[in-house]
Amino acid sequence: MANVTFKGEKMTLLGTEQKVGNQAPDFTVLNNDLEPVSLHDYDGKVRILSVVPSIDTSVCSAQTRRFNEEAGDLANTVVLTISVDLPFAQKNWCAASGLDHVITLSDHKDLSFGKAYGVVMEELRLLARSVFVVNAAGEIVYVEYVSEGTNHPDYEKAIEAAKQA
Question: Is 60 among the catalytic positions?
Answer without folding.
Answer: yes
